[in-house]
Amino acid sequence: AQRVTQPEKLLSVFKGAPVELKCNYSYSGSPELFWYVQYSRQRLQLLLRHISRESIKGFTADLNKGETSFHLKKPFAQEEDSAMYYCALSGGAFKYIFGTGTRLKVLA
Amino acid sequence: DAGVIQSPRHEVTEMGQEVTLRCKPISGHNSLFWYRQTMMRGLELLIYFNNNVPIDDSGMPEDRFSAKMPNASFSTLKIQPSEPRDSAVYFCASRTTGMNTEAFFGQGTRLTVV
User: Is the CB of A32 less than 8 angstroms away from the CB of B99?
Assistant: First the structure.
């Protein structure tokens, strides 16, 4: 079965502090993993995908197959990072599933 | 392209009424997804289509929910009869099939059943 787990519903950090949003997945094949972000009153949009190994807006995420994790990290949080973050898994049969999401609040 | 278009943006209806949500995917995308977003459950996959064919509807909560995709440019999600617990934001998304392709989301329909 395919599953994405985001254990934290809410994460509050102070501006300038490091951020780590956790994501664990369950999938027997080779996973395709993504992070999406939803800013207030906007539609969900892709933040980054594991295959690209890119840094977007200072965020990075590394796929750890041993721990089946794909945590999202940023060394110094900014107020504009406050948003809802979803981890997503694309697996077999074209399926595309999301975790329950983590709301990140960056405090001034 | 205007992106994925959903209508209506907001819907308020009385319990027991039929509700139809509409989605126009991005032209050329051959996969379409319907999701329901709630505080408690996050983004739940309800059903998805590939080349207009329903592939997996195991996420549809009850028989009151049904979805169709009569052609490549249109899909509907229907709830009949609606109940207050159906109140949520419903999203439609589309993508091309292939490795690591992005899903593009509509603005969502905020449904309130009173």
Answer: yes
CA neighbours closer than 13 Å in the CB half-sphere of residue A47 = 26
Q: Which residue of A has its CA nearest to B49?
A: A94
Position A29 scores a pLDDT of 83
**B33 contacts on A by Cβ (under 8 Å):** 96
Q: Which residues contact A30 (CB under 8 A, 6 or more apart)?
A: none
Find the distance separating the first CA and the last CA of chain B, reported in whole Å: 35
- What is each CA distance from B24 to A66, B12, B30, B32, B106, in whole angstroms? 40, 21, 12, 9, 9
Sign, CA torsion A34/B104/B109/B68:
negative
Tokens at A94, concatenated = 């074209």
**B65 pairs with which residues across the strands?**
B79
pLDDT tens, A26-84? 998 888 999 999 999 889 999 999 888 788 899 999 899 999 999 999 999 999 999 99
CA A106 to each of CA A13, A99, B34, B92: distance values in angstroms, whole numbers, following the listed order: 5, 21, 30, 29
Cβ atoms B21, B67 nearer than 8 A: no
CB contact under 8 A, B41 and A100: yes
